[in-house]
Fold:
Amino acid sequence: MTNPPTPVRPSREEAEEAVRVMLRWAGEDPSREGLLDTPSRVARSYEEFFEGYAVNPEELLQRTFSEVDDYDEIVLLRDIRLESHCEHHMVPIIGRAHIAYLPRKRVVGISKLARVVEAYSRRFQIQERLTAQIANTIDSVLEPYGTAVIIEAGHQCMTTRGVHRPGVSMVTSRMLGVFRDNSDTRRELMAMLNRPGMSEFSA
Ligand SMILES: [Zn+2]
Structure:
């Protein structure tokens, strides 16, 4: 699950040629001045959009802190910006993720949770799998009492093409451990999520 796929990687030149083919397919002339550098720009963009394949998300969570003075409440990181690409249409999925876990002795730096979101979202994805991968990784590495991941996102394959439904967002969640088994814990999480934003703390 966490290992990047290892098909033979085409060369940069092949990738740029593929962009020229798609430009011609769309009706363009790739030799037009404005498009001359487009294939190399697209290739560079792809390196950034899909850098998650080179990251091992489990490694990001290896460094944990155990001196938490018996902290035994929910840790929630909400409104993590999420940018991914739909694997069916290769267009952006833009949204936000909320991650919660109930620590069992160990906590992790919050920036690391955001990095796990990045590692999986900078790949071709479907939102359901992305949600599950993030939750499963946190759950298996940190071994908390429970893990919850909720993602809400807009899919450009739905908003800019096909059914053209701007403003529609999709919500997916994966609840593990106490968040799955204990309705009180799940309710507590939902109450934390629905609280108004505390912008005075996030400036
Ligand atoms: Zn799609």
